[in-house]
Amino acid sequence: MNSIIKRCAWCGDDPIYQAYHDHEWGVPCHDDDKLFAMLCLEGVQAGLSWITVLKKRKAYYEAFDGFDAVKIAQYDSRKVDELMNNEGIIRHRLKIEAIISNAKAYLKIKQNQSFNDYVWGIVANHQSQTPLINHPKDINDIPTQTQASQALSKQLKKDGFKFVGPTICYAYMQACGMVDDHVIDCTYKRK
């Protein structure tokens, strides 16, 4: 007997989007480097659709040395110019420079604590590092930002991160599984 898979409407029928929805979105991530990479990618997404970034994600990993923060923090103006000519990524100078700035801020945070503890510690349920489980009936019930994303944005900005407004931070929280916003009839909803 085949079971019918129900997904959140936002992922549509694009296989890349569906794979992301099914295997990444809302799944708790506690790996510092993955959390850093996702924060950078969410910042790149500002003003664009997430599918645009997903389709370019591999190129971003290649262009940005696998999101190795130590290497990225050393990028100079020549490297920025090289990235501006890379057709595989979104060629937006401020977003490229934000990734470099974010690498430096990330490394500074890591001098005192894991990035996992830092970001998860700002959102609710942080002591157990368990996700907030919401119960939206449909995508219209999913907020674009919350008090937790506003707090995360405020702290990230204070610590030198860029392209981390509260809406980007909420998308980041969803992407990294800090919050589960799968609609209630979605096959991938946490019970």
Automatic annotation (TrEMBL):
Binding annotation for Zn(2+): 8, 21, 182, 186
Gene3D superfamilies assigned: Hypothetical protein, domain 2 (1.10.340.30)
Domain of life: Bacteria
Catalytic activity: Hydrolysis of alkylated DNA, releasing 3-methyladenine
Keywords assigned: DNA damage, DNA repair, Hydrolase, Metal-binding, Zinc
Any single biological process term in GO: base-excision repair
Pfam family, one: Adenine_glyco
The keyword Protein biosynthesis appears for this protein: no
Keyword Transcription part of the UniProt annotation: no
EC number: 3.2.2.20
Example of a GO MF term: metal ion binding
Coiled coil region boundaries: none
Role noted for this protein: Hydrolysis of the deoxyribose N-glycosidic bond to excise 3-methyladenine from the damaged DNA polymer formed by alkylation lesions.
Protein name as annotated: DNA-3-methyladenine glycosylase I
Organism, as annotated: Moraxella bovoculi 237
